[in-house]
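Batch 3, record 17
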Amino acid sequence: MPKLVFKFLFFLFLFFIIVFSGFPFYYAIISSFKVGSEIFEPTLWIGNFDFTNYRALFQQQNFFGVILNSIITATGTVLLSLLAGVTASYALGRLHFRGRTTLLLTILGVSMFPQIAVLSGLYFLIQTLGLFNHWLGLSLSYLIFTLPFTVWTLTSFMKSIPKELEESAVIDGAKPYQIVFKILFPVLVPAVVTTGLLAFIAAWNEFLFALTFTINEKSRTIPVAISMFTGNSEYELPFGILMAANVVVTVPVVLIVLIFQRHIISGISSGAVKG
Amino acid sequence: MKSLQAKQAITAWKMLSISLILLMLVAAYPLAKTFYFSFTNARLDDLEGATFNGIENYKTLFNDELWWQSVGTTLKFTGISVSIELVLGLAIALALSKDFPFRSFVRAMILIPWAIPTVVSTRIWEWMYNEQYGFINHILLKLHVVDSAMAFLAEPSMQMYSVVLIDVWKTTPFMVLLLLAGLTTISTEVHEAAKVDGATPWQSFWKVTLPLLKPTILVALTFRVLDSLRVFDVFYVLFSNNEKTSTMSIYARTQLIDFQEMGIGSAASVMIFLIIGIFILMQTLFLRKET
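Prediction for the assembled complex:
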């Protein structure tokens, strides 16, 4: 009998976990389909699929532009950190040279930087380079948190590839860049996917730098646009449209997470086990 | 043979150059510049004209009650939310380490809060907290837990806990995944041995699982504390730069951008950097002593 009770409690707890994790997003979806005074009634089902809020979002709020900004910024961040990360991890994972460990630890140290500590210096840098309101300014600044992680993860992956793989190429006189991109890269794909996804999500979600380094409305990324979402007056927040915006920007991330669940979990966990 | 080694070193530094240049540009240089600004009277609209003014900014900072209030808010937030996340995360990780149907579905579900942008989840919770139309008030009123609607975000005594709940919702998954990774490294044989020796599941948890999981717990705690100490998004989205609910990061940004006080803001940034640096140092020393 106690075993049955235990089993019941166990599944009750699981049920609680699922509801607690999923409910807010579910509630946002329901709210996004409510129009007019429906929004003020907290029903738990979608009455009818009314896309008024979604239409309003794209027609009134220039939301396409905002999404495009985020896609460009996040993609730029991913490409930059992968290009830099793959080459660096080859050196750190497969070559022997003095100062390797120190360098690896320094790069790890950068990942612990609080973003705010570099904010005023970055402001100056971005002003000097003339990169305000530009995706490159954001992508570059995001490297502070994506690059250390990318280098660290790819390096441990590089170390695990057997030495024989590149030996024949070395004998054939292949250049280091050829070895990295022609021979090692195909083997490295799973790790590249993992780190790329995590970098994309991090850039997609970033708020502090995006808020500080985009001044005009046209160059805002999703988090900034959503944080500044207002109606005609402060007391008249269009909750329905806001929830539609939340759903639109979250769906791709949720899909990524569900499809690449395994990659992402291994990416997050690798930090802990090796740390 | 030596020339081969030297050749390898040259290749290594060549391959590292992109990363090193980028990190110099976006990490080392801005950090140095922030340190520099913290000793000057720089203003946002006149960065070039900054002149050295010694430790003036730090004096101003240390005499500013608002700064200390922000430090207090941040520490309180970190203490409460990280403790809850540890306990809840441990419970969930233990549950998910068992075998049951739909396990990977549950694991995917808990990833959703982690993946949603903080700004987005904060606005969803803000809507659920709404005093007049929010879902939470609706439920509480219906169940007669409260007589009148609660102002979760306006009432000062409730603000902190409302934020903590959002943070717990958002970051417990991270804790769970790290602890789950740690749990899988503990072999089942250890538990079986404990069982043979007559240990109850409860004893087995306290005497076997927990000590073996300790390194993972410490690493997970470090990550979470570091993250909490620099909290910005959730407070800023809910309360903007309101002084009463300002965290260390919000204080620094408000000085830098809104008040254009680059010097004082940079001094605050340096202090945050040092606080986090000291924490990392203590943690490393502690970990080294443990192992």
